[in-house]
Amino acid sequence: MWFSIVIFFLISLGLGYTILDSCKTKAKDPITRFIEILGTGVAAFSFLSIIFWLLHIPIRPTAYLLVALVYPLFKFVSILVKNKKFKLPFKKSESWQLLLKLAIILIILISFFSVYHKGTFAYPYLENDDPWHHAQGAKYIATTGSVNQQFFKAETGAVISSYLEPYPPTYDAMMGLLLQSNDDIAWTLKFFNVLLITLGLAFYYLFAKEFWKDDWKGIFTMFILATLPSFMSHFIWSQTLALAIFPMAFYAYLRSLEEKKWVVPAAIIIGSMLVTQPVVSFFFGLVILLHAGLVLAKDLLGKKRKEKKKKNKMLWPRALLVGASGVGVSLLFWGSQVIKMSVGGIFRSKGGEISGGSGWSSSYALQKYTLQEVLFPPHSSRIDQAIGWGWVLVLILVITIAIIIFKYRRTLNINKEWRFIHLFVWFGFLFYLVFAQSFGLQGWGSSRVWPYLAIPLALLVAEGVFILAKSISKNTKTIVVIVLLCAVLIGATSIPAKVAVQTATWPPGVDWGNPQLEIPGFIQMEQTLPKDSRVFPFCSVLSHVIGFNMYVEAWNVETHKFHEEIINKTGEEILNFLHTHKYEYVIIDTVCINKYGNKTEGLIEKIQGSATPIINKQGFLLVKVI
Q1: Lowest CB count within 10 Å: 43, 170, 198, 227, which one?
Q2: Beta-sheet strand order (sheet of 611-617)
Q3: CA angle at 331 for the pair 328 and 337, rounded to the nearest 5°
């Protein structure tokens, strides 16, 4: 398992360093540089997966490591040969400030990781339904090295996983690659999902720091996101990767407006962002378009434009170039999918998340919320998306907006502090989506938009805390005390709900017959049999076997069809199938009773003479095939 962690960081740091150093980008300070490299590498993970998919290169750790480490090793050797002296990328007098910032960042990240790690490992199974799909997709990729499932769909009309093409397969590709260096699918999904969320917080620090041009506001933004009940769940799904890359994409875009050297990295990171999860990509596109539009307005309509043009070139062409380049990179994947399925076909697919039982226009997504739920976040909430902010956060938000509006002429001028306009529109649009139903208005995906709304909320509140502190006192020590007091109050009113929801025991999903009976049986099976034992479930979904670290070839067309038609097979046909596909064990559980009723006894009788019971408990039977 430790080897998987090493591989993850080697690939991420190697890819990030390769991209940023080859483009000759400069470091502002060592903390910023390390997070830049790591964030760029995590994003490039997705980009490389799409390139491998296009070139039909198997998803294998050796291939990723080769691409990631060639350039860094070359640079390391060249430094040794040239005998260059190492120089600190900062002044020694600044070292204590950097250490203080690093300590605060690490405390926030470690605390956050600890809570989420405790929560995700609080139960020995995968929660809900999506994680089981991701487990099956990751296992398929780990076994075959491929993300293609068109052959399977053509033969069966079904899919190996809802989160392989036409859905961007980058999350499952990452998990499938990491699974190849350990033997525990549940641990891989749980651990790296939490790790990605935690690293995402560090990337939000980087983005907020660049957005406000202030390190401490960046740290405070990260702190707010860490405490917000509505920001990120340890639920296992591709949104985790998407929201982790989101701030890096925005950060790279902002840096590219300042330095041409960031144009290529920004294009790669934005392109990677757009091939992680469709809805996050949609929201990111809107936010970037809004920002680029304001850049254009500032360049063309701002006061003293002619004077500014003498000093600086207009930025809107570069903003357009970076955005278009990112879209171009994403078309390496989306273009091929549109050709295969059309835009409508992609949206109609289960992974499109636009329609269906849990789609963004469904009753599941369209929810109404009360003021009490916002001010006092509930300690029991949906596992995929908790809700609420905390009354202190809301109070500071209201004060912040009031102060900014009061200073309207100074702050909302297109030529001065125009970031507020961007932030207000960003926040206002997402606020409408979350609360439209609550006000009786037409909405879309209200319950799903909470984490996206948390981003501009955190930026506004972080700015508001410092505006408030500086308006009360000009003394640095007093400002620090006020900021710390705000942090304590925010934490006291927001963290308890977050911890309660994220450390609760979550259910295993709806695809079970009777989970109270079946789950103990599956757990005992995992404890009894060697990992990757070949187990065929007569009735349970195949992904449940995979999620408990057993092996079933769910991507095999014959296996899929036999599983669907097993009730009509004779004992001889069943045994021939099991022997041909080398399945040593068979599961019969309460799902069989739900599906076939009294015919379940007939299934048992068909193999009774050729099977030895291994686990026989109420609702769960595991037998070894002789």
Answers
A1: 198
A2: 535-537, 585-589, 620-625, 611-617
A3: 170
pLDDT at 94 over 80: no
pLDDT at 451 over 70: yes
DSSP 180-194: TTSS-HHHHHHHHHH
Peptide bond into 496 cis (omega under 30): no
- CA 43, CA 242: separation in Å to the nearest integer? 9
At residue 623, φ and ψ (nearest 5 deg) are -125, 150
Provide the pLDDT for residue 357: 47
DSSP letters along 561-579, please?
A: HHHHHGGG--HHHHHHHHH
Which tokens hold the place of 497? 């709900």
Per-residue pLDDT tens over the stretch 338-395: 887 766 666 666 544 544 445 556 666 678 899 999 999 999 988 888 999 999 999 9
Give CA–CA dist 551/176, Å, rounded: 14
Q: What percent of the chain has pLDDT over 70?
A: 91
For the chain, the structural domain boundaries read 2-84+116-502, 515-625
pLDDT of residue 310: 47
Record the pTM.
Answer: 0.93
Residue 549 phi, psi (nearest 5): 65, 25
Tell me the two tokens of residue 87.
């120089």
* Distance separating alpha carbons of residues 524 and 621, to the nearest angstrom: 11
Closest Cα to residue 272, out of 64, 52, 45?
Answer: 45
Choose the weakest-confidence range: 44-48, 281-285, 295-299, 493-497. 295-299
Calpha distance 316→319 (Å, rounded): 5
Name the pLDDT band for 439 (thresholds 50, 70, 90).
Answer: confident
Helical residues (DSSP H) of 407-449, grouped into ranges: 408-411, 419-435
**286, 262, 264: which is closest to 274 by C-alpha?**
286
Cα 460 from Cα 454, distance rounded (Å): 10
SS3 614: strand
- Residue 20 near residue 40 (C-beta atoms within 8 A): yes
Structure tokens at 146: 């491929």
Amino acid in the structure at residue 406:
F
Token pair for 491: 């934490």
Residue 214: per-residue pLDDT: 94
Distance CA 399, CA 50 (A): 45
- Contact (Cβ atoms closer than 8 angstroms) between residue 534 and residue 585: yes
By DSSP bridging, strand 535-537 and strand 585-589 are parallel
Residues 608 and 237: their CA atoms lie apart, in Å, by 40
Do the beta carbons of residue 188 and residue 182 sit within 8 Å?
Answer: yes
